[in-house]
């Protein structure tokens, strides 16, 4: 009976959403047509005004509906956050603050991407209209006779493809920037499963190998902690489930690095891999990382010189640009920005 009731509710919800979508779309197109009919003809001869009309026409079919749907989802998310936040505050106020800080990077990325997407639409309205025009030339009846008579198909096809490639390249760049930002906004995941399973997530394609798990934990410097848990490597981590043991942020970071050792992939990307570690632990870990990196491609992003001194090539970036590159010895001999920063760090 419960399953039937849930199914009926889901169907009713989909019907309600579809009815809203149809009503909103009809209303928006009515406003668009009414506005278009009221414009003086001079507006239809102005390229800038035509760009605005083009954007309105392209967005009218789905954007208002999407805004309403996402608005409703936002209200639901806010209510859920308030309820969960209230429950967390009853445990400890810091948990609620930590949760808020954890979701802010992802929220900022989405806002930034929405702004970039709006700017992209605004800047490329002219080219999109040109592309629609060239497509209409090749597919419309009004141009069909001359297209065939004078062999103009390849010419307009080339014009269409040039603009299409330009727009596609910009879209790909926009999506790539968003993807990189979203990856950068995320920390390594903290899974509330056993310690062994956490490490084995580094390579789920093969059966869990207990010996390799312990070896990876040893290389990451987390083996002593895991072996002393009540259930050892079979002990759940985190505090969501019974008998779970919470780790410190530095220990969770070692768990993430242990996954990299367990995976043994040919290419490694590490963003501040030792940021939460003390100096002694960092030194031991870096020695193991150098062993792991042998015959592999490793990209490390770090502000700590101890982390990157051993790299074959170091790229120094300032204001988003590469200003120096070379090994540690080469950069020190050049006595430029890298040399200045390294010397300054030694004085601290």
Characteristics:
extended, two-stranded parallel sheet, two-stranded antiparallel ribbon
- Biggest sheet architecture: 2 strands, parallel
Alpha-beta content class: mainly alpha
Number of domains: 2
* Proportion of residues in helical segments: 55-70%
Catalogue the unreliable spans: 183-187
Total number of helices: 15
How is this structure best described in words?
There is one protein chain. With 348 residues, this protein is mainly alpha-helical. The protein folds into two domains: 14-185, no CATH class; 195-311, Rossmann fold. It is built from 15 helices and four strands. It has helices at residues 2-38, 47-60, 63-91, 93-123, 125-139, 144-149, 153-185, 195-200, 210-220, 223-227, 249-263, 279-292, 305-308, 328-334, 337-347, and strands at 267-271, 297-301, 314-318, 321-326. The strands form two sheets. The protein has a two-stranded parallel ribbon. Helix 4 runs antiparallel to helix 7 (153-185). The longest helix has 37 residues, at 2-38. It is extended and about 80 Å long. Residues 183-187 have low confidence and may be disordered.
């Amino acid at each position: 009976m419960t399953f039937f009731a849930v199914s009926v509710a889901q169907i009713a919800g989909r019907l309600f959403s579809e009815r809203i979508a149809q009503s909103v779309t009809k209303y928006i197109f009515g406003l668009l047509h009414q506005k278009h009919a009221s414009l003086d003809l001079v507006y239809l001869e102005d390229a800038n005004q035509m760009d605005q009309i083009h954007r309105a026409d392209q967005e009218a079919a789905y954007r208002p509906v999407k805004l309403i749907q996402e608005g409703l989802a936002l209200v639901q998310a806010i209510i859920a956050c308030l309820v969960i936040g209230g429950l967390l505050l009853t445990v400890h106020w810091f948990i609620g603050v930590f949760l808020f800080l954890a979701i802010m990077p992802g929220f900022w990325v989405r806002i930034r991407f929405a702004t970039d997407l709006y700017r992209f639409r605004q800047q490329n309205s002219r080219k999109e209209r040109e592309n629609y025009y060239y497509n209409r030339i090749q597919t419309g009846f009004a141009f069909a006779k001359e297209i065939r008579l004078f062999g103009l198909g390849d010419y307009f096809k080339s014009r269409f493809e040039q603009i299409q490639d330009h727009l596609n390249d910009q879209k790909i760049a926009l999506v790539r920037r968003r993807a990189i930002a979203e990856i950068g906004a995320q920390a390594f995941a903290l899974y509330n499963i056993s310690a062994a399973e956490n490490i084995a997530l580094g390579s789920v394609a093969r059966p869990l190998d207990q010996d390799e798990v312990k070896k990876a934990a040893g290389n990451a410097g987390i083996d002593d902690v895991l072996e002393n848990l009540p259930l050892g490597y079979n002990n759940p981590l985190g505090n969501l489930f019974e008998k779970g043991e919470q780790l410190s942020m530095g220990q969770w970071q070692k768990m993430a690095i242990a996954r990299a050792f367990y995976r043994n992939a040919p290419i490694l990307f590490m963003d501040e891999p030792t940021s939460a570690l003390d100096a002694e632990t960092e030194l031991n870990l870096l020695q193991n990382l150098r062993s792991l990196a042998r015959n592999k491609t490793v990209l490390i992003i770090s502000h700590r010189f101890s982390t990157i001194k051993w790299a074959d090539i170091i790229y120094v970036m300032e204001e988003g640009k590469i200003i120096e590159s070379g090994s540690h010895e080469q950069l020190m001999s050049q006595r430029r920005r890298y040399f200045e920063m390294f010397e300054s760090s030694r004085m601290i």
